[in-house]
Amino acid sequence: MVLICDEREGLMNRGEVYTIKGTTTTKIGEAPRTANLDEKRDALQWETTDWVAVEQFINKAQTRIAKATAAGNTTLSKPVNVRQTLTYLRLEPYEGKPSSTVLRRERRGNPPNPANVNNILDATISIDFGRKGFAIRGKAEEGRISYEEGIALAMSTFQEAQATSDPQSIILAEYTFITQELQLCAKTDKHTINSLTQAIQSFDDAFLALEVVEDKTLYQAVDKAIPHHKKYRTKSFPKDSFHIACGSHKTRIKNILTSPGIDPIEKALLEQRQVNLTAAQDGYIEKQKKALD
Asked: Which pick of 3, 199, 250, 260 has the fewest CB atoms within 10 Å?
């Protein structure tokens, strides 16, 4: 594990000193060297992270995963030290099993893959790091590498979620992405903050709809309570909070796609996310059919 500390102070660990401050790493008896991209990213990440907000995000993500995998009798571990957990995830993402430090699971059936949540977290951080690098002199190349890596990881993860045809897995990936976007959003960007907050609230309602649609008796009552006019229906089924969340979020993504200057690879990711939301609705309609049969 790489230990991060202030360059002026260092940190002693069994006779070793590591000082990573974005540019150098020094160990006793060794010549100074230039930190690689991963080390620079880790240092920046540690220094700029709002740990209170991170704790709230992790707790919320765990709750969502628990709800989404309820059919598999999944259980969460006791609360973990979030600061320690995220240090492990960020500094040693490939040397262990990051998901096991966040969740302890007894999988039955085919619940959503929690690795997708970790992939989305990594992807959004890499994308954000890359965007910030574009604006810093001398950091454009490193920023581009991080940005492209993040986009590629997000794309593959969304495609994996789409392949499941499971509305829970699909919207869980999107929910994780936009929640992390909100965490990384500049506090002065009120428009984006409001937009993301509304989207997250809509998906909170969508998760509740996923619970109700599994109960035939409850959902048949829902069907009677929602008008049968086509305005309130999606392919003759109730346009409930799940369809409303997906529809409004597709509109939001469509508006982003019309913005000038979007990078082609990010445009492809936005289009994939739109496809995913349609796939989520199709999968949800199958659940509605079963409930109302």
From this structure: 260
Per domain, the residue ranges of the chain are 1-35, 43-292
β-bridge partners, 12: 17
d(CA 179, CA 282): 24
- What is the model's pLDDT at position 139? 83
**Looking at the DSSP assignment, which residues form a beta bridge with residue 25?**
33
**Alpha helices in 1-81, H assignment, sequence order:** 37-48, 51-68
Amino acid at site 28: I
Give the pLDDT of residue 124.
94
**DSSP of 65-116:** HHHHTGGGT----S---HHHHHHHHHH-TTSS-HHHHH------S----THH
Provide the greatest CA pair distance for the chain.
77
CA distances from 10 to 18, 99, 250 (A): 6, 30, 48
> What secondary structure, in 3-state letters, does 117-146 show?
HHHHHHHHHHHHHHHHHHCCCCCHHHHHHH
Chain position carrying tokens 């002065």: 188
| Predicted confidence (pLDDT) at residue 152 exceeds the cutoff of 80 | yes
**Each residue's pLDDT tens digit, 166-216:** 999 999 999 999 999 998 888 889 999 999 999 999 999 999 999 999 999
Which whole number is the average pLDDT over 26-53?
Answer: 55
What are the residues whose beta carbons fall under 8 Å from the beta carbon of 178, sequence distance 6 or more? 196, 199, 200, 203
**Per-residue pLDDT for 279 more than 60?**
yes
Q: For residue 24, what are the β-bridge partners? A: 34
CB 59 within 8 A of CB 86: no
CA end-to-end distance (rounded Å), the chain: 55
Residue at 278: amino acid letter: T
